[in-house]
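User: Before I run my own analysis I want an independent prediction to cross-check against. Here's the chain; please return only the structure tokens and, at the end, one sentence I can use as a sanity check.
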Amino acid sequence: MARTAAGGPSTARGSSSAASPSPASPSHSARQSPSPPASSTAGRATALPLRFGTGNASQVITVTAASTVSTTATLQSWRRSAGQWRTVGPAVEAWLGSDGLSRHPSESRTATPIGSFTLTQAFGHDADPGTAIPYTRTTPDDWWISQSGSLYNTRQRCASGCDFTRGDPNEHLYYETPYYDFALVIDYNTRNAPGGVRQGAGSAFFLHVTVGQPTQGCVSIAKSQLVRLLRWLRPADHPRILLGVR
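Assistant: Structure tokens:
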């Protein structure tokens, strides 16, 4: 679900075997142009902009959109200290799915899920940038599985004789650049989600590198900002991402 809404060289929610897919124009004719990100007063204690549960997290990333049909949003990182949430770093622009936001994503829509989700794993074509989050550097044998079955919505490594299709609808992670130079897995409908995996409820939702266009349901930001977040996040702080409308 990484690429731009038009899907680049592959179909809407599938993979690409091309070495370097070219960004494509969004499928709808009136996509929004992102406005400059809102300013942020680093370190100021304030309430989170989204009213979702944060569990035992002391690190949170919020992605706040103007409406459920927005394809852009503001991303801000936060740390809880002495019972208060304080901003960390700047607010930055983020791109959402071309279908905006939804509480009920699926394989047939390019919508970003609404809610509060853990961040427990990361991967990328590039070398580990120095993150404490468990990180996998991808190889040409790495895939994200979107076909139904026991492997649905997981990363798998296989060169031949695989228990999945090495092609659509699965994503060939190593070749999805620059999108997956770095990516954080959003634990919507993953094995780490409270309800586990539900077949067909949507897969492959990541925070990844942007090309300045709406995505197929992921959240994308500038590569430098994603590297900053990867270096900041700590598993011991039980980090979460909150996605929704302010």
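Sanity check: The chain is about 5% helix and 25% strand.
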